[in-house]
Protein backbone atom coordinates (compact mmCIF):
# COMPACT_ATOMS: atom_id res chain seq x y z
CA UNK A 1 0.00 0.00 0.00
CA UNK A 2 1.42 3.43 -0.93
CA UNK A 3 1.84 6.01 1.83
CA UNK A 4 -1.14 8.40 1.98
CA UNK A 5 -0.53 11.69 0.27
CA UNK A 6 -0.66 14.84 2.35
CA UNK A 7 -4.25 16.02 2.61
CA UNK A 8 -4.92 19.62 1.65
CA UNK A 9 -7.98 21.34 3.07
CA UNK A 10 -9.94 23.65 0.81
CA UNK A 11 -10.15 27.11 2.43
CA UNK A 12 -13.92 27.51 2.08
CA UNK A 13 -15.39 26.64 5.44
CA UNK A 14 -19.08 27.33 4.84
CA UNK A 15 -21.64 26.27 2.22
CA UNK A 16 -21.85 29.93 1.11
CA UNK A 17 -18.09 30.09 0.46
CA UNK A 18 -18.23 26.83 -1.50
CA UNK A 19 -21.16 28.19 -3.50
CA UNK A 20 -19.19 31.32 -4.35
CA UNK A 21 -16.25 29.27 -5.56
CA UNK A 22 -18.39 26.93 -7.67
CA UNK A 23 -20.18 29.94 -9.16
CA UNK A 24 -16.85 31.30 -10.37
CA UNK A 25 -15.77 27.81 -11.44
CA UNK A 26 -18.82 27.32 -13.69
CA UNK A 27 -19.46 30.88 -14.89
CA UNK A 28 -16.20 32.81 -14.46
CA UNK A 29 -14.38 35.01 -14.96
CA UNK A 30 -16.82 37.26 -13.09
CA UNK A 31 -16.76 40.53 -11.22
CA UNK A 32 -17.46 40.29 -7.50
CA UNK A 33 -20.79 42.00 -8.12
CA UNK A 34 -21.70 39.34 -10.69
CA UNK A 35 -20.68 36.60 -8.25
CA UNK A 36 -22.95 38.11 -5.59
CA UNK A 37 -25.84 38.37 -8.03
CA UNK A 38 -25.51 34.81 -9.36
CA UNK A 39 -25.00 33.28 -5.91
CA UNK A 40 -27.77 35.35 -4.32
CA UNK A 41 -25.40 36.60 -1.60
CA UNK A 42 -24.32 39.98 -0.30
CA UNK A 43 -21.24 41.78 -1.54
CA UNK A 44 -19.79 41.52 1.97
CA UNK A 45 -20.23 37.72 1.97
CA UNK A 46 -18.48 37.49 -1.38
CA UNK A 47 -15.55 39.63 -0.23
CA UNK A 48 -15.18 37.56 2.95
CA UNK A 49 -15.16 34.28 1.01
CA UNK A 50 -12.96 35.40 -1.86
CA UNK A 51 -10.07 36.70 0.26
CA UNK A 52 -8.80 33.33 1.64
CA UNK A 53 -9.37 31.66 -1.73
CA UNK A 54 -7.15 34.25 -3.41
CA UNK A 55 -4.54 33.96 -0.66
CA UNK A 56 -4.46 30.16 -1.12
CA UNK A 57 -4.15 30.50 -4.89
CA UNK A 58 -7.47 28.95 -5.85
CA UNK A 59 -8.88 32.21 -7.17
CA UNK A 60 -7.06 34.92 -9.09
CA UNK A 61 -8.19 38.52 -9.42
CA UNK A 62 -7.04 39.88 -12.77
CA UNK A 63 -6.49 43.60 -12.44
CA UNK A 64 -5.52 43.72 -16.11
CA UNK A 65 -8.78 42.06 -17.17
CA UNK A 66 -11.49 44.55 -16.29
CA UNK A 67 -15.09 44.94 -17.27
CA UNK A 68 -16.40 48.45 -17.81
CA UNK A 69 -19.99 48.97 -16.65
CA UNK A 70 -22.17 51.72 -18.09
CA UNK A 71 -21.94 53.51 -14.76
CA UNK A 72 -19.24 53.47 -12.11
CA UNK A 73 -15.64 52.37 -12.01
CA UNK A 74 -14.15 49.41 -13.94
CA UNK A 75 -14.26 46.15 -11.95
CA UNK A 76 -11.60 43.44 -11.88
CA UNK A 77 -12.54 39.91 -12.89
CA UNK A 78 -12.18 36.92 -10.57
CA UNK A 79 -11.39 33.50 -12.02
CA UNK A 80 -10.36 30.04 -10.87
CA UNK A 81 -6.69 29.16 -11.30
CA UNK A 82 -7.18 25.81 -13.00
CA UNK A 83 -3.51 24.94 -12.63
CA UNK A 84 -3.62 25.20 -8.83
CA UNK A 85 -4.44 21.50 -8.34
CA UNK A 86 -5.00 18.24 -10.21
CA UNK A 87 -7.58 15.46 -9.90
CA UNK A 88 -7.91 11.94 -11.25
CA UNK A 89 -11.11 10.52 -12.69
CA UNK A 90 -11.72 6.84 -13.47
CA UNK A 91 -14.58 5.18 -15.35
CA UNK A 92 -14.84 1.39 -14.96
CA UNK A 93 -16.72 -0.53 -17.65
CA UNK A 94 -17.25 -4.27 -17.91
CA UNK A 95 -14.00 -4.82 -19.79
CA UNK A 96 -11.92 -1.62 -19.63
CA UNK A 97 -10.86 1.07 -17.22
CA UNK A 98 -10.50 4.68 -18.41
CA UNK A 99 -8.57 7.31 -16.48
CA UNK A 100 -7.98 11.04 -16.88
CA UNK A 101 -5.86 13.63 -15.12
CA UNK A 102 -7.67 16.97 -14.96
CA UNK A 103 -6.96 20.38 -13.59
CA UNK A 104 -9.17 22.20 -11.09
CA UNK A 105 -11.40 23.40 -13.95
CA UNK A 106 -11.88 19.75 -15.00
CA UNK A 107 -9.95 20.17 -18.23
CA UNK A 108 -8.39 16.88 -19.30
CA UNK A 109 -4.59 17.05 -19.30
CA UNK A 110 -3.76 13.34 -19.72
CA UNK A 111 -5.92 10.33 -20.66
CA UNK A 112 -5.11 6.63 -20.34
CA UNK A 113 -7.00 3.34 -20.50
CA UNK A 114 -6.30 -0.30 -19.69
CA UNK A 115 -8.13 -3.56 -20.41
CA UNK A 116 -9.56 -5.47 -17.47
CA UNK A 117 -8.32 -9.08 -17.36
CA UNK A 118 -11.28 -10.11 -15.19
CA UNK A 119 -14.11 -8.37 -13.36
CA UNK A 120 -13.14 -9.64 -9.91
CA UNK A 121 -12.71 -6.71 -7.46
CA UNK A 122 -9.10 -7.68 -6.68
CA UNK A 123 -8.12 -7.66 -10.36
CA UNK A 124 -9.96 -4.39 -11.02
CA UNK A 125 -8.21 -2.77 -8.04
CA UNK A 126 -4.84 -3.92 -9.40
CA UNK A 127 -5.62 -2.33 -12.78
CA UNK A 128 -6.88 0.79 -11.02
CA UNK A 129 -3.63 1.06 -9.06
CA UNK A 130 -1.58 0.69 -12.25
CA UNK A 131 -3.60 3.34 -14.04
CA UNK A 132 -3.42 5.79 -11.12
CA UNK A 133 0.35 5.26 -10.86
CA UNK A 134 0.71 6.21 -14.53
CA UNK A 135 -1.39 9.33 -14.03
CA UNK A 136 0.48 10.33 -10.86
CA UNK A 137 3.75 10.02 -12.77
CA UNK A 138 2.35 12.34 -15.43
CA UNK A 139 1.17 14.69 -12.67
CA UNK A 140 4.72 15.12 -11.39
CA UNK A 141 5.50 17.20 -14.45
CA UNK A 142 2.85 19.79 -13.56
CA UNK A 143 4.38 20.63 -10.19
CA UNK A 144 1.07 20.81 -8.29
CA UNK A 145 -0.63 18.26 -6.00
CA UNK A 146 -3.20 15.65 -6.96
CA UNK A 147 -5.95 16.25 -4.41
CA UNK A 148 -8.42 13.48 -5.08
CA UNK A 149 -9.63 10.60 -7.22
CA UNK A 150 -13.18 10.02 -8.40
CA UNK A 151 -14.40 6.63 -9.61
CA UNK A 152 -17.54 6.10 -11.70
CA UNK A 153 -19.28 2.71 -11.89
CA UNK A 154 -22.56 1.68 -13.51
CA UNK A 155 -25.23 0.38 -11.18
CA UNK A 156 -26.45 1.05 -7.67
CA UNK A 157 -23.81 3.07 -5.82
CA UNK A 158 -24.03 4.49 -2.31
CA UNK A 159 -21.90 7.63 -2.68
CA UNK A 160 -21.99 8.52 1.00
CA UNK A 161 -20.62 5.10 1.97
CA UNK A 162 -18.42 4.74 -1.11
CA UNK A 163 -19.94 1.31 -1.72
CA UNK A 164 -21.01 -0.36 -4.96
CA UNK A 165 -24.24 -2.03 -3.87
CA UNK A 166 -24.86 -3.72 -7.21
CA UNK A 167 -23.19 -3.37 -10.60
CA UNK A 168 -24.69 -5.67 -13.25
CA UNK A 169 -21.85 -5.25 -15.76
CA UNK A 170 -19.15 -5.99 -13.18
CA UNK A 171 -21.29 -8.54 -11.32
CA UNK A 172 -20.39 -6.87 -8.02
CA UNK A 173 -22.42 -6.72 -4.84
CA UNK A 174 -21.58 -4.68 -1.74
CA UNK A 175 -17.99 -3.81 -2.67
CA UNK A 176 -16.54 -1.01 -0.42
CA UNK A 177 -14.76 0.50 -3.41
CA UNK A 178 -13.89 3.92 -1.96
CA UNK A 179 -12.14 2.37 1.05
CA UNK A 180 -10.30 -0.23 -1.04
CA UNK A 181 -9.25 2.29 -3.70
CA UNK A 182 -8.04 4.79 -1.08
CA UNK A 183 -5.88 2.08 0.48
CA UNK A 184 -4.58 1.11 -2.96
CA UNK A 185 -3.86 4.58 -4.33
CA UNK A 186 -3.14 6.67 -1.24
CA UNK A 187 -5.58 9.32 -2.49
CA UNK A 188 -8.89 10.58 -1.10
CA UNK A 189 -11.48 8.68 -3.18
CA UNK A 190 -15.09 9.36 -4.09
CA UNK A 191 -17.25 6.72 -5.77
CA UNK A 192 -20.49 7.43 -7.59
CA UNK A 193 -22.85 6.03 -10.18
CA UNK A 194 -21.39 6.76 -13.62
CA UNK A 195 -24.44 8.62 -14.95
CA UNK A 196 -24.62 10.83 -11.84
CA UNK A 197 -20.92 11.57 -12.23
CA UNK A 198 -21.47 12.57 -15.86
CA UNK A 199 -24.36 14.74 -14.68
CA UNK A 200 -22.07 16.59 -12.23
CA UNK A 201 -19.68 17.36 -15.11
CA UNK A 202 -22.55 18.62 -17.27
CA UNK A 203 -23.91 20.73 -14.39
CA UNK A 204 -20.61 22.44 -13.60
CA UNK A 205 -18.80 22.43 -16.93
CA UNK A 206 -21.12 21.33 -19.75
CA UNK A 207 -24.58 21.66 -21.28
CA UNK A 208 -26.24 22.04 -17.87
CA UNK A 209 -24.32 25.13 -16.72
CA UNK A 210 -26.75 27.74 -15.43
CA UNK A 211 -29.77 25.41 -15.40
CA UNK A 212 -31.62 24.76 -12.16
CA UNK A 213 -33.48 21.67 -13.42
CA UNK A 214 -32.25 19.29 -16.09
CA UNK A 215 -31.63 15.61 -16.77
CA UNK A 216 -28.97 13.51 -18.48
CA UNK A 217 -30.26 10.37 -20.20
CA UNK A 218 -27.65 7.87 -21.38
CA UNK A 219 -28.24 5.09 -23.88
CA UNK A 220 -25.90 2.18 -24.49
CA UNK A 221 -25.18 -1.00 -22.55
CA UNK A 222 -27.56 0.36 -19.93
CA UNK A 223 -30.18 3.09 -19.95
CA UNK A 224 -29.47 5.63 -17.22
CA UNK A 225 -30.67 9.01 -16.06
CA UNK A 226 -29.03 11.68 -13.92
CA UNK A 227 -31.31 14.29 -12.37
CA UNK A 228 -30.67 17.85 -11.25
CA UNK A 229 -33.55 19.34 -9.26
CA UNK A 230 -33.36 22.88 -7.89
CA UNK A 231 -29.64 22.93 -8.59
CA UNK A 232 -28.78 19.67 -6.82
CA UNK A 233 -27.88 16.29 -8.28
CA UNK A 234 -30.47 13.86 -6.91
CA UNK A 235 -29.55 10.38 -5.71
CA UNK A 236 -32.72 9.63 -3.75
CA UNK A 237 -33.14 8.00 -0.36
CA UNK A 238 -31.74 4.69 -1.62
CA UNK A 239 -29.27 6.03 -4.23
CA UNK A 240 -31.32 4.72 -7.15
CA UNK A 241 -33.06 7.90 -8.37
CA UNK A 242 -33.13 8.09 -12.16
CA UNK A 243 -33.31 4.35 -12.94
CA UNK A 244 -35.47 4.93 -16.01
CA UNK A 245 -34.07 1.80 -17.66
CA UNK A 246 -36.56 -0.15 -15.59
CA UNK A 247 -39.70 1.86 -16.10
CA UNK A 248 -42.31 -0.22 -17.89
CA UNK A 249 -42.95 0.63 -21.53
CA UNK A 250 -45.24 -2.35 -22.15
CA UNK A 251 -46.07 -4.91 -19.46
CA UNK A 252 -46.46 -7.52 -22.22
CA UNK A 253 -43.17 -6.58 -23.82
CA UNK A 254 -39.89 -8.51 -24.04
CA UNK A 255 -38.28 -9.92 -20.89
CA UNK A 256 -35.69 -7.80 -19.09
CA UNK A 257 -32.63 -9.07 -17.22
CA UNK A 258 -34.17 -7.64 -14.03
CA UNK A 259 -36.84 -10.37 -14.17
CA UNK A 260 -39.73 -8.20 -15.34
CA UNK A 261 -41.10 -7.58 -18.83
CA UNK A 262 -41.30 -4.54 -21.07
CA UNK A 263 -38.68 -2.37 -19.35
CA UNK A 264 -37.08 0.42 -21.36
CA UNK A 265 -33.80 -1.52 -21.00
CA UNK A 266 -35.39 -4.53 -22.74
CA UNK A 267 -36.14 -2.39 -25.79
CA UNK A 268 -33.14 -0.09 -25.96
CA UNK A 269 -30.09 -1.63 -24.27
CA UNK A 270 -27.26 -2.46 -26.68
CA UNK A 271 -27.24 -6.19 -25.91
CA UNK A 272 -31.03 -6.39 -26.07
CA UNK A 273 -31.09 -4.61 -29.44
CA UNK A 274 -28.38 -6.92 -30.82
CA UNK A 275 -30.26 -10.02 -29.65
CA UNK A 276 -33.52 -8.79 -31.18
CA UNK A 277 -31.84 -7.91 -34.49
CA UNK A 278 -30.34 -11.41 -34.66
CA UNK A 279 -33.71 -12.97 -33.87
CA UNK A 280 -35.65 -10.97 -36.47
CA UNK A 281 -33.08 -11.15 -39.28
CA UNK A 282 -31.94 -14.73 -38.68
CA UNK A 283 -28.37 -13.44 -38.83
CA UNK A 284 -25.82 -14.44 -36.17
CA UNK A 285 -25.10 -11.23 -34.23
CA UNK A 286 -22.28 -11.18 -31.69
CA UNK A 287 -22.32 -7.53 -30.62
CA UNK A 288 -24.07 -4.18 -31.07
CA UNK A 289 -21.61 -3.08 -33.77
CA UNK A 290 -22.80 -5.90 -36.04
CA UNK A 291 -26.44 -5.06 -35.37
CA UNK A 292 -25.76 -1.41 -36.13
CA UNK A 293 -23.94 -2.26 -39.38
CA UNK A 294 -26.89 -4.39 -40.51
CA UNK A 295 -29.34 -1.57 -39.82
CA UNK A 296 -27.12 0.99 -41.58
CA UNK A 297 -26.97 -1.38 -44.56
CA UNK A 298 -30.74 -0.95 -44.83
CA UNK A 299 -32.09 -4.26 -43.50
CA UNK A 300 -35.75 -3.46 -42.75
CA UNK A 301 -36.02 -5.82 -39.77
CA UNK A 302 -32.93 -4.36 -38.11
CA UNK A 303 -34.12 -0.81 -38.76
CA UNK A 304 -37.47 -1.64 -37.18
CA UNK A 305 -35.73 -2.82 -33.99
CA UNK A 306 -33.91 0.51 -33.72
CA UNK A 307 -37.13 2.41 -34.47
CA UNK A 308 -38.88 0.60 -31.59
CA UNK A 309 -35.90 1.38 -29.34
CA UNK A 310 -36.15 5.05 -30.25
CA UNK A 311 -39.87 5.09 -29.49
CA UNK A 312 -39.22 3.52 -26.08
CA UNK A 313 -36.45 6.02 -25.30
CA UNK A 314 -38.71 8.92 -26.26
CA UNK A 315 -41.44 7.66 -23.96
CA UNK A 316 -38.91 7.21 -21.16
CA UNK A 317 -37.66 10.78 -21.58
CA UNK A 318 -41.25 12.04 -21.60
CA UNK A 319 -41.82 10.28 -18.28
CA UNK A 320 -38.88 12.22 -16.82
CA UNK A 321 -40.26 15.46 -18.27
CA UNK A 322 -43.75 14.80 -16.93
CA UNK A 323 -42.51 14.02 -13.43
CA UNK A 324 -39.86 16.74 -12.99
CA UNK A 325 -40.39 19.36 -15.69
CA UNK A 326 -36.69 19.85 -16.55
CA UNK A 327 -35.57 22.75 -18.71
CA UNK A 328 -33.37 20.41 -20.75
CA UNK A 329 -32.68 16.72 -21.27
CA UNK A 330 -29.17 15.91 -22.46
CA UNK A 331 -29.02 12.61 -24.35
CA UNK A 332 -25.64 10.88 -24.34
CA UNK A 333 -23.97 7.48 -24.15
CA UNK A 334 -22.26 5.08 -26.54
CA UNK A 335 -25.67 4.16 -27.98
CA UNK A 336 -25.72 7.48 -29.82
CA UNK A 337 -23.77 5.71 -32.58
CA UNK A 338 -27.27 4.64 -33.69
CA UNK A 339 -28.85 8.07 -33.24
CA UNK A 340 -29.55 8.55 -36.94
CA UNK A 341 -31.62 5.36 -36.84
CA UNK A 342 -33.94 6.43 -34.04
CA UNK A 343 -33.70 10.23 -33.58
CA UNK A 344 -37.04 10.84 -35.31
CA UNK A 345 -38.78 8.18 -33.22
CA UNK A 346 -37.35 9.61 -29.99
CA UNK A 347 -38.69 13.07 -30.74
CA UNK A 348 -42.06 11.86 -32.05
CA UNK A 349 -42.65 9.59 -29.03
CA UNK A 350 -41.51 12.33 -26.66
CA UNK A 351 -43.88 14.87 -28.20
CA UNK A 352 -46.77 12.41 -28.16
CA UNK A 353 -46.21 11.35 -24.53
CA UNK A 354 -45.07 14.57 -22.82
CA UNK A 355 -47.94 16.32 -21.05
CA UNK A 356 -48.72 19.97 -21.72
CA UNK A 357 -45.79 22.33 -21.20
CA UNK A 358 -43.47 19.42 -20.43
CA UNK A 359 -43.20 19.03 -24.20
CA UNK A 360 -41.29 22.36 -24.29
CA UNK A 361 -38.31 20.66 -22.68
CA UNK A 362 -35.18 21.15 -24.78
CA UNK A 363 -33.68 17.87 -26.05
CA UNK A 364 -29.92 18.07 -26.71
CA UNK A 365 -27.63 15.28 -27.89
CA UNK A 366 -24.06 15.07 -26.56
CA UNK A 367 -21.98 12.16 -27.92
CA UNK A 368 -19.34 11.66 -25.23
CA UNK A 369 -16.53 9.05 -25.25
CA UNK A 370 -15.66 7.12 -22.11
CA UNK A 371 -12.85 9.61 -21.36
CA UNK A 372 -15.63 12.15 -20.74
CA UNK A 373 -17.29 9.75 -18.31
CA UNK A 374 -13.95 9.53 -16.50
CA UNK A 375 -13.92 13.34 -16.52
CA UNK A 376 -17.30 13.13 -14.80
CA UNK A 377 -15.67 11.04 -12.09
CA UNK A 378 -12.99 13.72 -11.72
CA UNK A 379 -15.78 16.30 -11.39
CA UNK A 380 -17.19 14.37 -8.41
CA UNK A 381 -13.73 14.44 -6.80
CA UNK A 382 -13.54 18.20 -7.36
CA UNK A 383 -17.03 18.60 -5.92
CA UNK A 384 -16.06 16.52 -2.88
CA UNK A 385 -13.01 18.71 -2.33
CA UNK A 386 -14.64 22.14 -2.63
CA UNK A 387 -18.12 21.54 -1.22
CA UNK A 388 -18.56 22.16 2.50
CA UNK A 389 -22.05 20.58 2.33
CA UNK A 390 -20.99 17.39 0.57
Task: Outline the structure in words.
The structure is a single chain. The chain has 390 residues and is α/β, with parallel strands linked by helices. The protein is built from twelve helices and 15 strands. It is 41% helix and 22% strand. It has helices at residues 15-27, 32-39, 43-55, 121-140, 177-185, 194-205, 264-268, 270-281, 288-296, 300-324, 339-353, 370-386, and strands at 59-67, 75-80, 86-92, 96-103, 108-115, 146-153, 156-158, 163-167, 172-175, 189-193, 214-218, 224-229, 232-234, 328-332, 362-365. The chain has three domains: 15-80, Arc Repressor Mutant, subunit A (Orthogonal Bundle), CATH 1.10.10.10; 84-201 and 371-386, ATPase, nucleotide binding domain (Nucleotidyltransferase, domain 5, 2-Layer Sandwich); 209-365, ATPase, nucleotide binding domain (Nucleotidyltransferase, domain 5), CATH 3.30.420.40. Strands 5-4-3-6-10 form a five-stranded mixed sheet.
Radius of gyration: 22 Å
The profile of the biggest β sheet is: 5 strands, mixed
Structural class: alpha/beta
Beta content comes to: 15-25%
Annotation, overall tally of beta strands: 15
Which fold name is given in CATH as the topology of the largest domain?
Answer: Nucleotidyltransferase, domain 5
Can you give the mean pLDDT? 92
Q: What's the CATH H-level superfamily name of the largest domain?
A: ATPase, nucleotide binding domain
Percent of residues in helices: 40-55%
Amino acid sequence: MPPPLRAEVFPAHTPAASQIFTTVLSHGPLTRADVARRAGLSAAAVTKAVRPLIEAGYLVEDADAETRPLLGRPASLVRVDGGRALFIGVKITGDEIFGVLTDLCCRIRVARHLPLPTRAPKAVLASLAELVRELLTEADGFGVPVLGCGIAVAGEVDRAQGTVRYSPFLEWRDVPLAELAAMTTGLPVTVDNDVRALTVAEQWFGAGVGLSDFAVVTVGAGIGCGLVVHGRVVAGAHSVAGEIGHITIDSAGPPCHCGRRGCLQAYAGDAEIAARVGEITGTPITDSAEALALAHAGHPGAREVYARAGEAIGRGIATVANLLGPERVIISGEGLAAYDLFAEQIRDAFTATAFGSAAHCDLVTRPLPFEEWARGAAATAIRGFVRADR
